[in-house]
Write a sequence for this structure.
């Protein structure tokens, strides 16, 4: 069995979400224009600000997916819950 097949889908999904959060705002042709305006702001400004919030959402989804997968892995190995041990 290859190492790639051992990677869980949660990690793949997290990776794709994180790549989207970083790469899409860097694609200049997607936002290099003035129109349409939103509340008087050119497209460039509100599009970039929108990606700040979208990136925060995508990162939090990725965190929750990876955290759940790590909990499953620790439970399968009989290690218990790390949060309870740390007192969080």
């Amino acid at each position: 069995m290859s190492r790639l097949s051992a990677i869980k889908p949660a990690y793949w999904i997290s990776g794709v979400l994180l790549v989207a959060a970083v790469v899409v705002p860097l694609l200049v042709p997607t936002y290099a224009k003035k129109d349409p305006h939103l509340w008087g702001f050119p497209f460039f400004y509100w599009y970039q600000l929108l990606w700040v919030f979208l990136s925060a959402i995508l990162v939090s989804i990725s965190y929750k997916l990876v955290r759940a997968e790590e909990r499953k892995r620790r439970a399968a190995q009989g290690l218990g819950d790390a949060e309870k041990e740390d007192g969080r």
